[in-house]
Amino acid sequence: MSSCDSPALVKGLVPLDDAQSVLAQRAQQYGTLTETETVTIHTALTRVLAETITSQINVPGFDNSAMDGYALRLADCQQQVAANGKIEMTISQRITAGDAPEQLLENTCARIFTGAAVPDNADMVVMQEQCELIENGQVIFPTELIDAKPQQNIRPAGQDIAIGQTLFQPGRILRAEDLGVLASMGFGQVTVYKKLKVAVISSGDELVEPGTELTPGKIYNTNSFTLIGLLQRMGMEVVGPFFAADTLSDTQAVLTQASAQADVIITSGGVSVGEEDHIKAAITSGGELEMWRLAIKPGKPFALGQFNKTPVIGLPGNPAAVVVTFYQLARDFLWAIQGADAQPLMALKGKATFATKKSIARTEFLRARYNDGDIEIYNNQSSGVLSSSSWSDGFACAPAGEIINVGDEIAFYALTTAHGHG
């Protein structure tokens, strides 16, 4: 939810907080995906976990040495100092990582290396720099060892993870670090929810695909590629992309095709009030429009509805507005239906290095950068300037009806979550 939002100052526009609440409620009504599949952990990155992960082993599974040195028994050290005033022991075995150690013989030590298993009856490891290796495999140790605490320089079994410990719950979006943790417990595969299928539809007769020659009046289709990238980064399956010509019949046909193949539909363009904007009418012809026009900038012509019982999110056509509305609205809705835990954008506070000339009646999200607590905005905030989104790493928030002055503390929303999921 946006902490910088405020009640709508323009009649008929939905405040951002209200829009986010509606989306959350609708996601709950549609329900999360229930179909699961089992995948290897090699392919589980960004997948949403569908099972509880509980360790069946200790990690590490045995006491092991925290350094290169010598493993020995405290009782032997105390006995030798009492009898001889010094500690001198024979090396009885050499233990490297992967070796199975033997019990230590009385008044002997084991040459041991980092990560190697410690003999069952050893209760300390002394780093090699504190010891003196002399002839015939004898080692002299400092007499201060008699005051050492047991288990010195030994990493105990289960120090990282204990048997029966629950590590992850359903809904977790698996990160690279999680895959390593799963491997450490011996999991070769996990049960995850199937990928959410999201259809991407662009509309507009002015659009042509990159790689073809522009003709007068045409522009390249960018929104499909932005949305596909955002969805792929979330680990979702992209259906399409589809293109709808600027006619009601073609828009209806494309929505019908997309709704038969996808769990959710995202459109860009065609949701404004122009005569050639047909998304709104097409949605209502095969379902219902639940929400339209928000009190935010950019992104006022945002729509939520359903077509053939498939949820439809209608994003604006302007490229920068697509980015803003996706992060502020569509993203959380998609995560919820995917069955993932909430992934709020990281909210920061910083000082504005800019001033706004006038207040507006909508909450405005300015493409911005966060630099050590200072917030800098892009010099052109037009909703058609897509390069501003590529330049920025988040949004500075200007609440409706307020003017920002240089030095004011304002809200900044980073385009990564606290857990790193975009």
Task: Note down, in words, how this protein is organized.
The protein is of the alpha/beta class and 422 residues long. The chain has four domains: 16-37 and 196-338, 3-Layer(aba) Sandwich (Molybdenum Cofactor Biosythetic Enzyme, Chain A); 39-56 and 163-192, Molybdopterin biosynthesis moea protein, domain 2; 64-155, Molybdopterin biosynthesis moea protein, domain 3 (Molybdopterin biosynthesis moeA protein, domain 3, Beta Complex); 345-417, MoeA, C-terminal, domain IV (Beta-clip, Beta Barrel). Helix content is 22%, strand content 30%. The protein has helices at 16-30, 74-84, 176-184, 223-233, 248-261, 279-286, 319-338, 387-391; strands at 36-40, 53-54, 64-65, 69-72, 87-95, 108-112, 124-127, 132-134, 138-141, 154-155, 166-168, 189-193, 197-203, 207-208, 219-220, 237-244, 264-268, 287-292, 296-297, 303-307, 310-315, 345-352, 363-371, 374-377, 394-398, 409-417. The strands form seven sheets. A six-stranded mixed β-sheet has the order 7-4-6-5-9-8. The protein has a six-stranded mixed β-sheet with strand order 16-13-17-21-20-18, with helices on both faces.
- Going by CATH, the architecture of the largest domain would be 3-Layer(aba) Sandwich
The biggest sheet, with number of strands, parallel, antiparallel or mixed sense and barrel status, is:
6 strands, mixed
Mean pLDDT: 93
List how many beta strands DSSP finds: 26
Q: Roughly how many Å is the radius of gyration?
A: 31 Å
